[in-house]
Structures are given as C-alpha cells and as structure tokens.
Isoquinoline 1-oxidoreductase, beta subunit (Bradyrhizobium erythrophlei), 732 residues
Amino acid sequence: MFFDPLAGHEVDTKTKSSRGVSRRAILSVLTAAGGGLLLGVSLPYLTGTADAASEDSFAPNAFIRIARDGQVTLVMNQVEMGQGTYTSMSMLVAEELEVDLAQIKLEHAPPDDKLYRNPRLGFQVTGGSTSVRAFWKPLRTAGAAARSMLISAAAATWEVETASCHALKGEVIHAPSGRRLAYGKLVDQASKLPVPDDVVLRDPKDFTLIGSSAKRTDAAAKVNGTAEFGIDTKVPDMKIATVAACPVIGGKLGDVDDSKATTVKGVIKVVRLDDAVAVIADHMGAARKGLQALVITWDRGPNATFSTADMALQLKEASTGPAAVAINRGDAVKAISASSRRVDAVYQLPLLAHAAMEPMNCTVHVRKDGCDVWVGTQVITRAQATAASVTGFPLDKVKVHNHLLGGGFGRRLDVDSITQAVQIAKQVDYPVKVIWTREEDTRHDVYRPYYYDKLSAGLDENGHPIAFSHRVTGSSVLARWLPPAFKDGLDRDAVEAGAGPYSFDNVLVDYVRQEPPAGLTTGWWRGVGVTHNAFMVEGFVDELAAAAGQDPVSYRRALLNNSPRAKAVLDLVAEKAGWDKPLPTGVGRGVSVVFGFGSYLAQVAEISIAKNGRVRVKRVVCAVDCGQMINPDTIKAQMEGGIIFGLSAALYGEITLKDGRVEQGNFDNYQVVRIDEAPTIEVHMIVSSEEPGGIGEPGTAAIAPAVANAIFALTGKRLRQLPIDAAQLKSG
C-alpha cells in the first residue's frame, strides 16, 4: 500500500484498479456540435474507494470527439507545463482508438469540476504527478469503446459479422473483402449505437505506441513560436499593468503620491488595492516607469522585524510540543532508549521559491454582463471561482481561457495573482494584462515551507537499526489548500516518505504544525513532502551506515527486503554508476533511494569540491521504476529536469527574511544551475507492468541527499541543512 496525500486515502497497488477509477469505466455518447461522435468518460467521485462508489455518483469526465472529417479531438482537462502530459495523454487514446498520434488534436477543457475533475484529487486540477496515473485507464477505455463502436458501425453498413472487421490507423477494414471505411464516414452511425458495457483493453504485449518514445506533440509550436502561453495573450484594446505589493509580509498599502507617475507617457491609470498598487499603461515599459515614479508609503504591519532566524527559532520551540502521529509501528521510543547505540540529528530546509520562467500573469476583461480571464493555471475552476467572487458574477458568467504554462512546479496551483488581476481589471472597462516582474514574483511567491526535523535511531551491536523516529515540524500546505484532507492535526503530505522506503521493526513518524506569520504563504513546490523528507531520511540513513561502518549501498539493501522495486532501482543505479569501482582523487560519490508519487528511483551523484568550497556535481546516474512507461523519452526528460531543479535548490535555493522582507529578487541572488554547471546525467529505466507512477516530481527529490552524501564521502563533513554552505567546505 502507498498513501497519496492529496487524495486522502490509500491505493492498493496489488489490484488492477486505481483509486478513483472503477474496474468498469462508464461511458456515454453525446451529440457533437456539427455532427460526429462525442464520447464521454465517467468516473466516480472521491467519496471512498472506487469499488464503493455508487452508480448515481458518476458524471462525465473527459471527452473524445471524432468529427466527420476524421479529426480526433481530445478535450484536455489536464494542462501542459513542460511535463509532456499532452503527448502522453494523447498516446493513451491513440493506442486503443487505433489512430496515429498526429491525428489527435487537443483542446483546453473549460472549467467544470463535475465534467473534468481529476479523479485522484477530486476536482479539475493538474498536480501531484497524477495526470497519467489518474487517466491511464479511463482514456484507454474511451479509446477502446470508440473503436468498438466504429467497428460495429462499419459491420452494420456492410452487413457482415463484427468479428470479421478490425481497425487500423483510423479506418475500419473488412478483412475478407478488403473493404475499408475511414472513421469520419462512420461517426454518424456510430453515435447512434449503445456504448458497450465492457471493452477489452489491449494487452501490454500488443502495445504499438505506449512504451515507445514519441515526439512531443507540443514541441514544434514551442520551437516556431506559435505556442500560446498566458503571457502571450493579446485581445483588442488590451492594456498592460504591473504591480508592487507591500514588501513586508502581511503589510498593507499606506499612502500613494502618483503625481509624477501620471505624467509618464503611456501611463493611463493608477489602481490602489489593499496591499498593493498597480499602474496601467499602453505597454510594459510605461507601466514599469510609472510604477517607479510612484512615491509609496507602506503600512509595514506586525512583521516589520521578522527574520529567518525568528522562523527557525519558532520551529525549534514548536518541535518539542504535541505531535500528530502518522506512522506508529512497534515502540520506537522504547526501542531507541534500550538500544546499544543511539544516533540523533536535526535537519533543516529553507523556504524555496518556484522561479518559473514565465512570471505570474493574467489578462482580465470585466464587462457589465460577464468576465473573461486568460491565464495559464493548474486549477482552472478555482480561477473561475475567484473571478466570480471578486466580480459578483455567477460562475456561468465567468469564462476562463486556459493556456500552456511556462513552468508551474506547483506555483500555479494558487490563484492569488488571478484574484489581484481581477481586482485591478474591475476598476476599468477594457481588458488588462497584469504582469508581475521577476522581483515581484520572487518576493511574493507561495513558498515551499521551512522544515525543522528531528530524527533518531537505535542500532544493535551490528549497526542495524532496530528503531527509527522522525518528527517533522513545519507549515501545513494541505490545511490551507485542501482543508478536508487535513485531519486530526496531521498533514499527510508533510510526512510522506517520512520513513523512506525502508523496513523498520519499530518506527514512529509524527508531525507538528507551525505556521509562519500571516502574509507569508506556503504552497506546493514540485513535490513538498517527498522533496524535503528525502533529504532528511536519506541523509540520516547515510549517517547510520557511517556509524555502523558499512557501505551506504549495502546498508540500504539490507533495509529494503520488503520493497523489491526499491531494491531493484538501488541495484541498478549502483551497477550503472560503477559503485564498486574506485574514483579519481578528489571525487566523492553519494547515493539516495526514494519512493514517491507511485514511482521508485535511486540516484548516485559524483562531486568534486574546489578550494573555495564550491561544489561541482560532475555526474548523476538515475535509475527509475515508474511502472508501465508511456513515453520513455518524456520520463528521461523529466528525470533530467527534476535533477537540475532539485540541484539548483541544493546548491543555491534559499529564501531568507530580514526586517519582514524577502531578501531575494532575481536570478542574481536566487540562483539556478547554469548550463556550464550542469552535470552529465544518465537515466536508466526499469521495464515494468505495474500501473504507471508519477514522473514530474520524483526526480527532484533524490538529488539533494545524493549530493550531500557524496560530500560526506569525500570530506567527512555531514551537511544537515541546505543550501550547501561553501564556507563549511573551504579548504586551506
């Protein structure tokens, strides 16, 4: 069993059904606009396990539309932000429908939680590495059902047995006579047929598309510049606005002298909000100049002296208080106390920003009779809801046009920038595109929480851990973002992977919630629980191996007897990295193993350290078992991207506070790994028939502990806090 923290209940990995997807997907035929076949997929609401869902709790979820010209359209409720979702989801349909991948066109789905909800998360949302996991069976079932109906329509047309017909590349063929009909010629008759009660999905051994590397369907448009991101929005009479929010967390807008700003050529209007001010102009240059010309007095509020040190102290003090228990097996406290050797450690991780390449932006037109919103968002129905709330319009009067996302990483799971844009646009009668500057984006992000974790273990005389405990102390993203999932003081995401993939006879994982001051919001960050707990747990297990005087890989293998898939990726990464082979002088090597989002992976990092203490990651070897692979090329790309994202955080990532203000503003002081710093990355994939796991986030989690463990192997210095402090590693 594994726990999906956002969905709020467990998934049995031994069955062939995914949570939120019954063994029998319910399908319906609807009338397509302009004629054709429109097939709706239906899924149970998240009111319990899939098998317990009653039939009256089903509703249409995603649609495949086949037009009379043979064009297949997938109305896509998940969004593409670089993770390859559009390609993988299209592959699922194309495989069972028997069409070429190039024949499928995608449309962004409109906001509708009832029609387009993600069955693993309960509403229309892209996140948690759930897209393929949630729709692995439903989209295949829809494709198979449509194929079956088209074959039946052809058989009826020819007055032959259905069994004598088969589908191939968008046509139905009658084998004995060689007759064939294109899908487009059959859709009208097919749409009149009953949907089959049950369809047989292809056996994986017969896949021709799934499991093979396919070219990204969105690549050409992104290369030639025709792809439309939110920031590319252009509508008639549109103006541009940029904003400045109070630089002190929780502060408000005081007084504004706009006399100089209004004289800037191109400036149209200055808009005052509760905690921010915006300048609307003909173009971004004028808006920025106007903003710089404002004389603003800020009400700094109660957090004017708050610092990172204050946050760390509050977390440390809170960590000694009552905790909500996540895992309690055996008696870890007693076993640790009675052990022959005890190991204790405190690990800390800082606030982290998202720094997506596309800064936050949103275009809004508020009219007398409704509102249009153009944006790239992971939560389109929440975008619609906040626009409706600000304008006072009913939901059906708010139209949201979703776009490709120039990076999400969890940042676009929140709608604060959309709310602000609607507030600004409400004060004028023309469309306004609101764009945050990079500095505004960094200083008013929704940050991954600061964590202060205590870990303890008891070892026997052979150095084997007989007990393990891990107390997580930090903000609860879940309590704010999905309150029903926060139960009895426990944030399931905050403790996910809190004991790693390992087997301990006595284990205790618990959680203490400690929130930062109001105004500093925490949120999702390309994974939260797994990305932070992997560093804590994998660093600590490495400490245990060192205390036992044992090899880090061998030590981990002994703890993975109940997790053969985790052991398999560890063995594979050790083999491919040449773990048993000597390294050149001045090079260290570290390992980590992670299970998260339904996938298993292990990484080995090879590093060197300059005299000034600067760490250079030279090589990263990654082994991954994500179950059934859809598009191996995408998996490789996501592992590579996740490693670079996680490495940036390990080497440089840190949001710090001084006098209530975020000190970082742009890539000069919130650095990311540059091209000349990027390591050689090798990705090795295990072929598996298990249901697909997520791939968008796991790669991020494993790199930081692998690098930290490599530093220990090379220097004997144990890092329990990130980012890596070069001063600690400086030699001579």
About this structure: The chain is about 25% helix and 25% strand. Residues 145 and 331 are 52 Å apart (CA to CA).
